Amino acid sequence: MFKCNYKTLRLYFNEFHNIEAGNMPEYGEFCLLELKDGCYTGGEWHPVDYKNKKSVSGKFIRGTADTVDVSEVSKWHSLQRYDLTECLEDEDMGSINMGPKGDGVYTVEFKDFRSLKDNDFPKSEQYCLLIRKNGELAAGRWDQWEDKNKGTFIYAPALGSYSMEEIWAWTPLSPDDIFTAEEEREEEKRIEKELNKNPAADPEKFRYGTDIDVYYEKALEKLRLEYPWATLAQMKKRPQYVIVPRHGQYVFGQDNGTYMGENVINEWTDGSTADEFVDFLCEYVRESVQNSEPEAKFKYGKDIEVYLTKAFNNVRKDYRWIDKNKLKKSCHYEIKQINGEWEFVRYYGKDQYVCDCGTAESFIERVENDYQQEALRENPVVALYDVPFGSVEIHGWRLEKYTFLRLRTGDYKVEVQAGDRVTGGTREFFITPYCFEAKTYGEFLDRYLDIVPGSSFGLNKEDLLHDNKLKKFLGYSE
Questions:
Q1: Maximum Cα–Cα distance for the chain, whole Å?
Q2: How does pLDDT run across 271-319, given as a tens digit for each residue?
Q3: Partners of 200 in the beta sheet?
Q4: Cα 52 from Cα 27, distance rounded (Å)
């Protein structure tokens, strides 16, 4: 590693170019910039017309949505045309000149370099001049991670960055709007933390104290008048409310986790008294309690096999190839107690997930859907036919793919894909044997379009009726 002492090192930049003279960097060149207000930063030159090397219109890019317009820049100095390796290997080196120094030459000095290996880190969003371990110069904005001792220097869009391991020494450049905004945010956090050390409680709103469970218990008492089976566990299936300090006052709210190291609280503002909040809780959890009636939920008892057998028998009517033993390996369910409540549970490997089903029928329907998907995965495709179509728009999305697939068992399914400029999606539908009991192709389409309606998925009966290749693919004579 370099022997030079970074703490006493000074860099002198002498070869500055004036923007007013039209002397511009090469396209994509990373530069040290002196702004018209006397501040220093960095950026990669992107002219408006990249083919015109003399273009003075453009911007210097520092990162995603982080640019400096050329109109703000007075001078620039290349950062990427230098390799300081030999100089930094000299332990007696105290200063390095970038470009010849002399009378009338505009010079800027940078010093007070620091090292990340000393656990000396920039402030969050601070833009810095960097000396890389390969001897090159660079610049970047410090992106501090949640672990205060880790981060990276952002220098280009799409989070293009220099890792901590690449940087030998750094020194801060001038504060900018992004850094100033971050400093203001940190100051707000400091003030908020100070205010919340001894929060006040509105006597009307927190009439029953600052323990949230007291309010849940009071709401439970009211709910049991209408739903005798109600429990706290049922109520707390919905995202829970908490009592937390905010701006020096206790508030009711939902904790939505953290964003950029700061708790995000969605404050309850629908009332101003404790009893109004209790009434709100009753309505907020009502649906969850309604869907937890034991008699409706476990209508067929607590033997999971009863429910699975009903689902299997329903699915087997159409998916005639399904194997119950294979389903048990891939679709594992139990009825067990979670937080004191009996629940339907599905396992994915070692992880368990509660099936939020309010009735026995809704759970059986959930299992049927899982069995159907698993059955299709067990039945490989042996042939396919892509339906030709022109420009088809469905509720703002464009149809991209409409494919019929023949399965090993001789059954069929269809895949429909659509999207817009931002996103897209694919849906898969099994074509039930009932459709193929139709004597004519037209009658088949009538039944098929009840499963994949044209109004929802793009192609109607008239679009499919005269497709003789599809007709033959599905087993109907021409």
A1: 98
A2: 999 999 999 999 999 999 998 899 999 999 999 999 999 999 999 999 9
A3: 249
A4: 9
